[in-house]
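In this supplementary section we document a worked example of the pipeline. Step one takes a protein sequence of length 223 as its only input; no multiple sequence alignment statistics are reported here. Step two produces a three-dimensional model, which step three serialises into structure tokens for compact storage. The input and output of this example are shown verbatim.
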Amino acid sequence: MKGDLFTNDHMVQPAAGPGMSVQNAKSIRYVVDGEMLARQGAMVAYRGDLRFERKGQGVGGMLKRAVTGEGLPLMAVRGQGEAWFAHEAQNCFVVGVEPGDEFTVNGRNVLCFDATLSYRIQTVKGAGITGGGLFNSVFTGQGALGLICEGNPLVIPVSPQQPVFVDTDAVVGWTARLGTSLHRSQSIGSMLRGGSGEAVQLRLDGDGYVVVRPSELSPQKEH
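The serialised model returned by step three reads:
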């Protein structure tokens, strides 16, 4: 076969070793040797001796965002082989979590992660009174976390002298040691999302980084 499609730009090359890597801007490759976890329905291809098993649907088996009442079911991938993961052609990134780190992330941005990582569901402090609450997952341990984002994310430094205000529908996640609270802006309410009246943002204080996607989540996209 000839043509641009069959050049090295698109051809999958032999894996360098087990674990997670970015295959291209829109997909993540995982060389499985044991177990890993992924968003249900995100596997687009695999080869080898792999088994896919739905995780439980309780709080321990899903990343839940109570603002919408929806969760993110997970699946366990076990065996030896390679799998490729993607979601709606969104951009893919890998975050390395080290011992002592905490990374808080919205469940809609999780694609896959190492089984060595632990996560807990927690309410975002200060956001419990809007839309029924805002629930994120906090990842700890040591391993790789594969994320998806509509467009190229913005990584904004936060310092004690310069807090950052983000739209709750645009925030992807943030690092440890950042405090959260609600901030209401009557003056700019009419300029956000074409609405009117009071606007609410999530305020982040402390020393770290917040990751924001360059678009807001529309109700149509959410469903």
